[in-house]
Amino acid sequence: MENISVETTEHTQFLDITSRVQDAVRSSGVSEGICMVYVPHTTAGITINENADPSVRRDIETVLGALVPWNAGYTHSEGNSAAHVKASLMGFSVQVPVAGGRLALGTWQGIYFCEFDGPRNRRCVIAAMPLPAHA
Amino acid sequence: MENISVETTEHTQFLDITSRVQDAVRSSGVSEGICMVYVPHTTAGITINENADPSVRRDIETVLGALVPWNAGYTHSEGNSAAHVKASLMGFSVQVPVAGGRLALGTWQGIYFCEFDGPRNRRCVIAAMPLPAHA
Amino acid sequence: MENISVETTEHTQFLDITSRVQDAVRSSGVSEGICMVYVPHTTAGITINENADPSVRRDIETVLGALVPWNAGYTHSEGNSAAHVKASLMGFSVQVPVAGGRLALGTWQGIYFCEFDGPRNRRCVIAAMPLPAHA
Fold this sequence. Notes:
The structure is a homotrimer. Chain A has one domain: Sandwich (Jelly Rolls). Chain A is α+β, with helices and mostly antiparallel strands. A 5-stranded antiparallel beta sheet of chain A has the order 1-8-3-5-6, covered by helices on one side. In chain A, strands 2-7-4 form a 3-stranded antiparallel beta sheet, sandwiched between helices. Chain A contains 3 helices and 8 strands. Chain A has helices at residues 18-28, 55-67, 81-90, and strands spanning 2-7, 13-16, 33-38, 44-50, 93-99, 102-103, 109-115, 121-130.
């Protein structure tokens, strides 16, 4: 199990952490299995999406911002309820197959840390779980 | 693998089950690994979010209720389509790292059973999967 | 770890893949554990929901279509940003307990491949991870 630091630089930001997850998988020595990436925060989440055109991430950020506006008469006094909602909509972990010692992502997939109340110093936990031989 | 009963008392309710999941992890004897909590229903889901100020959960419930209104010309004759949609938006499992025999949640994180068509007697399945030594 | 082909026939479609996942679990020989079903795409996702009345799936498709309209001034030039957003809202994997060599789904649960930009030839990865004996 490995912890990585993630430093976000914007208030809302989808940050590509794919290569850092790949490094952790390599360090784990797991050849075939499942990799979990976990976000231990409540105003940031994690998702998978297109790794080619960065406008896709911006469109996702825009849609989430329209669905869950920052100011909407929330009761939570800290004022960042929208970030909490968006984190639950994206979720707090992704699971990805590992094959041949590498993340078996689809061709166009990358793993994105989803900052919804930054910039902040954040962290992820990466655990690679091996499948038993012949399973 | 352990089953726990969850009795909800409201129509829509985010119920903190963190300590019950922690108890199941302890019973499992798993020291390092991943804990999955699974909801075997279709009008209830599960998420992680802030464990301190209960207004956060109420704000999440309110936003989901605004995005997916109870009455909106749905075709499903049982009348609870909104609950089905909200369950899929939150998801039916969470995965959390286990370290030192305990859930390695972030400081502000709790695990919430999300009732969207209660009150009902519900259930969760908890499975703690150990990482191999040195993995 | 098993790959299955999924051929969708509609632009937006929730396709029941439960029996195919069940077949892969049987082939894996795993008796107690966790099954992950992974979607290696960025405009399709996966979820769990009601297996009885097909109108539930249509209502979910309708709500997602209303929340994330196909045309809404997106910046991504391919024109399918809505599909990317909906895939992230549903997620790219489900995890389901395995007991007695079978998926331990709830009575009303099925597993649905969520096509948001079809029809296309798609694929899923299925990995069944055994719990150690006595865990």
